[in-house]
Amino acid sequence: MFIFTALIPLAAFAQIDSSYKLGAGDKIKIVVFEEPDMSFEVTVDNTGIFTYPYLDEIRLKGKTTSELENELVMGLKGRVLINPNIAVSVIEYRPFSIGGEVKNPGNYSFEPNLTIQKAINLAGGVTEWSNGRRFNIEREQPIENERYSLDTPVYPGDVVTILPRRF
């Protein structure tokens, strides 16, 4: 029973990860098997565009890793490689931001299974003006009908603001 419950958060993240859209600050790895000269690590910049050999400019921003893989395969197949075998993965997610009534506001590295409570802890805890239970989340990819608690997941690119407690 313990193993099953321990795997639930990882499974939930894997589902989100498959629909995860790349954005500025994400570092990805493109591997073209048996073609090391065509494999790269690249950080998505604000333009979201990467110049790839033989294909010119490729838009990264807003695509999933699967969409990018398919685009590269279709672009290289037949023209450059007979049957390209390509894998794209995120090796470092863009940071999230936390501010407001925390001791150390700023940008922090995203980690899987990050929650509001863990983000508050990373930021050194709350100030004397907050109990940590009131907060706002601005998401790059809003989730419909989401209910917030201290266990609410934080995703790359999120902006979390811890509000002062009501007096």
Question: How is this structure best summarized?
Answer:
The protein is of the alpha+beta class and 167 residues long. It contains three helices and nine strands.
Task: Kindly describe this structure.
This protein is of the alpha+beta class and 167 residues long. It folds into two domains: 91 residues, wza like fold; 73 residues, Outer membrane lipoprotein wza domain like (Outer membrane lipoprotein wza fold like, Roll), CATH 3.10.560. 22% of the residues lie in helices and 25% in strands. It contains three helices and nine strands; from the N terminus they run H-E-E-E-E-H-E-E-E-H-E-E. It has a four-stranded mixed beta sheet with strand order 7-6-9-8, covered by helices on one side. A three-stranded antiparallel beta sheet has the order 2-1-5, with helices on one face. A two-stranded antiparallel ribbon has the order 3-4. A hairpin with a 7-residue loop joins strand 1 and strand 2. It starts with a helix and ends in a 5-residue tail after the last strand.
Oligomer: single chain
State the total count of DSSP E strands: 9
Instruction: Name the beta content range.
Output: 15-25%
- Rg, Cα atoms, Å: 19 Å
Number of helices: 3
Distance N to C terminus = 43 Å
Shape: elongated
Question: What count of domains describes the coordinates?
Answer: 2
CATH architecture of the largest domain: 2-Layer Sandwich
Query: What would you call the structural class?
Result: alpha+beta
Low-pLDDT parts are 1-16
Supply the CATH superfamily name of the largest domain: wza like domain
CATH class of the largest domain: Alpha Beta
